[in-house]
Amino acid sequence: MGSTSINWRHSVISSPLKVATRSGFTQPQAAKALSVSTAKVAKMEGGWVPVRDPDIRALCELYGVHDPGTVGSLLELARVDRERRKAKGWWQEYSFPGVMQEYIALENAATTIRTWQPAFIPGLLQTPEYAGGLRENPAAQVTKGPEPDEDFVAARVARRRRLKQEPALSLQAVVHEAALRNFPGGVPTARAQIDELMRLADLPSVSLRIYPFSAGTHAVLNGSFNIMSFAAPGAMDVVYMEGPLAERWVEGGEGAAAYDELFERIAELALDERESVSFLHDLRKDL
Questions:
Q1: Would the N or C end of the chain have less CB density within 10 A of its end CB?
Q2: Could you check whether the bond before residue 167 is cis, i.e. omega within 30 degrees of 0?
Q3: Where in the sequence is the domain holding 76, given as residue range(s)?
């Protein structure tokens, strides 16, 4: 991950750590309370190792977190995290770079994803031809991952199964008109992709809205983001932003809340779902 990444698993102990920061506790003090090394505490804070229930209770005691609801939520998050670490998903069959392995694992665990895409069709809605066109077009991607082209396309297709499986992933997508007028692969790819978007828009799990040129400019037009929400009690939203040379994660708190609000403002400027399908239909006729 890039240097600005925040590992989502640190949410297991993020609440007591905030208290620790305010109280002036240090990693060595936490390490002494847990009878572990300072390096182990640093790994726990970064989410790189699982957190045991006794460690959660000891940290809460040290940091003065005594509310049963808060402690219970942290214990549940730790349990879910340990279970997810042991789970093996379909994505492990593919050779993805580390950040995409992390993202797809989160996507697979999410119950809802809200995505804003100003330049490309959302990955969960891409046809194999569109995905393949992105892979083959050197202008579409600044860097190319180590996975074979067929793995890249097959994984995009496999991810879409969540939109139809039960319980289905709820996808709320807002796509800029620019993404619908700049297709890799030319007109044949464009026609097939727009047809597929109209089919997918009929799914109960999919809300697709188009942000037309007529809606004007917006501060967020220069970047995409995905907001992932989870069913686990107390789980925080995770925001993923992908840039040409770096990725960034924002987890919970004011940062994630700001992206929630930003998504709502973008959605308010976009066409509604019925208007968006009509827009796609008209665009398809013009191709």
A1: C
A2: yes
A3: 8-86
